[in-house]
Structure formats: C-alpha cells, structure tokens
Amino acid sequence: MKPVVVDAMGGDNAPNAIIEGVRQALEGGISVELVGDPDLLDDLGGLTLNPATEVIEMAEEPGKAVRLKKDSSIVRAAELVRDGHASAMVSAGNTGAVAAAALLRMKRLKGVQRPAIATVIPVPSGTPKILLDSGAMADCQADWLQQFARMGSTFAKVRYEMREPRIGLVSIGEEPEKGNQLVKETHALLSRDSSINFVGNVEGRDVLEGEVDVLVADGFTGNVILKTLEGTMQFLVGQIVSVLGGENATEVGLEALNLLAPIAAELNPDAVGGAMLLGVNGVAIISHGSAGPTAITNACKVAQDMVERDLVGELAAAIG
Amino acid sequence: MKPVVVDAMGGDNAPNAIIEGVRQALEGGISVELVGDPDLLDDLGGLTLNPATEVIEMAEEPGKAVRLKKDSSIVRAAELVRDGHASAMVSAGNTGAVAAAALLRMKRLKGVQRPAIATVIPVPSGTPKILLDSGAMADCQADWLQQFARMGSTFAKVRYEMREPRIGLVSIGEEPEKGNQLVKETHALLSRDSSINFVGNVEGRDVLEGEVDVLVADGFTGNVILKTLEGTMQFLVGQIVSVLGGENATEVGLEALNLLAPIAAELNPDAVGGAMLLGVNGVAIISHGSAGPTAITNACKVAQDMVERDLVGELAAAIG
Q1: Which fold has domain B113-270?
Q2: Which of A85, A280, A299, B59 is the most buried (most CB within 10 A)?
C-alpha cells in the first residue's frame, strides 16, 4: 500500500509528538511518511520526509492560508494524496485549513455538494457515536445535510461495521415539527430517504447516551455540541480532581481517583484516531489539536484501514 | 405586594411537589397563590387556588395548546398577571406553552422584537452564567440577538447585581470572522453597541469556565447547548456513581461519593430558581420540568425579587 503522509508541523505538540507517533505507527507495520520543513526537523531517525517549507498556524484564516501558503505541510500533504504518492493524509493542524486543502487539492467526490467533518465520540462501555458536520460548513442547506446523513451512514458501516446505523437529526425536541427551519426541511428529506435508517430528531442529551449512532447537524451546531461536550467534561473532571486529589487529598480521595481513571481513559479521544473529512476524493484525517503520539499512531492505523476498506469508493457509491 | 401565581399542574412532579414548594414559599413570607383544576387538587391546606379547568401537557404543540386551551392553568396564570391580580407567574410546565401564553396575554414590552428565555447555569464555586435564548425562538435575526444581548445584560445587573456583565456571542471560534452568517452579522451589531460590555465570540467550552457572564445565542443553538451540558453531566455522574457506588462498591468508593456530593449540589439547577422569559410585560419564570419543591420555592423567591427590583421596567428602559 502507498504510504500514509502525516503533517509533522500541525498541532499543539508538533513536531516531537507527531514524529514519535509516526515512528510507533511504522513499528506497528504501517507504511507512513512525514511532510514538513527539513530546516525545522532534525533527528528523524530514518523516517522519510516529504519537504514543505511553510507552516499554517492554528489561528490563521483557513481559506487565505491555503491560498497563500502553497508550500505548507498541509497543502503538500493533500497534493501527495492527489498525485497518487500517498494513500491518505493525517494532520493535527488547523482544522479549517486541512478541510480547505483537501477540498481544493483532492476535489469533491462526484455528486457531493459539500464535504463534512465526521467526529467520532468515544462512549465508555458503549459503541462510539459519530457526529457530522462538526465544523466544515457553518451555514448549510437541507440537501447538504441529507448528504451528510448518507455519508455518515456509510462511514459508520465501513469504520465500525455497523449494519444499519441509526441516523438522528440534531434538534430541540423529538417531534418532527420541532427545530429551526433548516432542521424541519431536513427532517422531511431524511424521512423520505430509503437509503438510510433515519430514527428521527435527537437532542443534545443523546450525544453520549441516545439510541442513535450517527448525529447529523450543520457545522455550526455540530461544533458547538463538540465544544460544549469537551468543556463540560473538562470542567467536571477538574472539579473532581480538585476535590479528591487537591492539596488536602486524603488516601480515600487518591484511591477513588484510581478507580475513576478507566472512565477518563475511555473518554479520551486519542483512542479513536481523529475526525475524518468525508466527501473529498481521498482519505483525510483531522486529529485533535492536542494530539499526542498515541493519537497520531491511531490516526495512521485508521487511515490505512479506511484505504483498505475503500471508504472513498463506498462514499461515492452512497452519493452517486 | 400582589401574589406570585404558581401553575399547580405543570411539570413532571405536579401537583404534589408544586404544592409543597408553594407551601414552603408561603412559610418563607412570600405572597403566593396556585392556579389549577379544583377537581384534581385536594388537600391544599389553606393555599389559595385560582381555578383553571384545563391542563396543557408537556408534549403538546405550544402555540396550538395555548390557542385551544383557554382555561388552562398556564394561560390563566398569564392572565392573572396581565389583569393585575398577580405580580408574577411561575410554571414548570410545557416551556413553549409558558412562553407563548406569556407573550400572547402579557404582550411584548414596547420595542422588543422577540422575547427570549434566559437560563441561569450554576457554576460550582463561581458566579452563575446566563444563557439566552435557550429555546423561545429557534430561528433568529441579528437585530433580535442584539436585543437578547441587551436584555441579558440588564437581567445580569438586576438579578446578580453585576455592574458590567461581560456579554459573549456563541460561535465556533473567537475571531470575529468565525461563525455562521447570523453570528457574523450579530457580531458586527454588538461590536458597535455601547450600551453593553461585549467581549466578543465565546465557544461551547466557555459555558462553565469562560471569562463571560452572559452567553447570547439563537434559541436553537442555546437549547442544544443546554441539553448537551445536561446530558454530559448526567452521563458522567452516572458513570462515576456506578464505579464508586455500584454493586461492588467499596468503603473507599462510598466515602469518595460523599466527598463529591457538594459538587453535585452546586450544579443542581433547583438552586437558581428557573429560567426567566425576558421581553414580555410581566415576570414569568419557567422552572425545569423536573422541578421539585425546593426549585419551586426558589422560583417564587426569585419572582418576588424581580418584581421588587422592577426587572420589567429596567428591561423596557434597556430596549426603549
């Protein structure tokens, strides 16, 4: 298989954590190469580096950055996939820039109106949930959301071998007449779509516990959900750690934290390998900005897996 | 002061929990009366009941229910405020119906384009955050959101005596150019509004921990945030309780749960007295559907407080 290319410059922990993750992926038998600035990277210990002399920073305006920084690691990674040198790309860099570069260089799949970012949300002692779009398209139309539903369904089948993924539409009540105009229009389209298993509207409280596998939303709503989820978890974990493990921690508190550690591990998004940009002509994985070596190694594994299972071909078939 | 009227029929625990909450409010020196169906309520123990023979159920379509059930407890409560018999209304019933009844019977304040529901989010060892609109208006315009910002600012001043509440606009990035079309337009309006202390865009992760006091969003986004927050907390609390206090609970686990109990108590929305409908010509409090006696008692206290501090007059001044 052609190598997976990994953006060495993207993410809060780049380049060291990225390089370490790639090294572990290679040791795990995955064909993988780096993309990045040779002048800023040394001690690659035998890893292959595809040169790119520019870096898109996390806070840059994505469209502009991709347009101006043609020799950036993100743009080059997308080109390596487009040109057939690589089978897939992985980046923990600027999410919008990865989406824009993949879209502009790999192009949309035939029939796809807009791509969407599918985020996998780990659920302790349960099956992960898939949320899309989690931020590629802030303003959406109903027919785009219908395609998101189809792409999310296909992704759930290919990635998690679900046979009939339950598709829910994020709204503010279960009844079809609840929601904003976009959701009401989308509900009507999804209800008539026999290619998916549409279970109706779902709510914010179903993100972790609902009877649903794929949650469909416009990119604004999806992103707000993800960040509210992350923020709430971080806040609660912070509170718990400060009570049980703070300055005046007792033995009981510390023992209890040990008991709770497995929950935190299961909620760690590093285990699920990053978000996937669906609808472009190639596999593009967008890892969390805070990705460490394990997240990058897992992203490489998922990337290889999605290439081998022909996710892109399956998506094209679902939309075409 | 004229009495606060409380809907005896609304909420998952009606009527008993409501009646008990009203009794406690009365014992606490608050002038308060019930509204409800005399045939369904007995043992009122001296509480005053304003009769209303119909009940709007939690799942009913709000607009239709308010139009058809003219003798429902929710509609009658709003009329008692309109007619000057009561100073304020409290209901734990169908949120949309309370908002619709208050809007149709009390009418909008002069100059207000749309009312908004302001929800108070308790923050352990911190100042509560105010989120509006949390569900009254699913589809909004930028100038409505600007009014929500002004009303939220006024509410924070009157309710929590904040001097210069920090107003944030919910988006998917801090930069002004991030967000959907509605948010970008609203950002421009708020940036130019010298009557509020606008601190810029905030994200889902700022709901509990951000440097912001009032979070402004359209009712769809606000409601999604609230339910994601609630769902995430319930999920995590469930996980923690099952690990520390489940079937195989150890002494350490149970002791640790005791240590954590104060956090849960501080996060309990019952303490903050319910959401407030802002922009109508009267004080209307919408308690959580699961409200127990304490939540109702607190709602009555807040209602009386808001009447005494002339919240409605302050809102009129802020918009007019």
Answers
A1: Isopropylmalate Dehydrogenase (3.40.718)
A2: A299
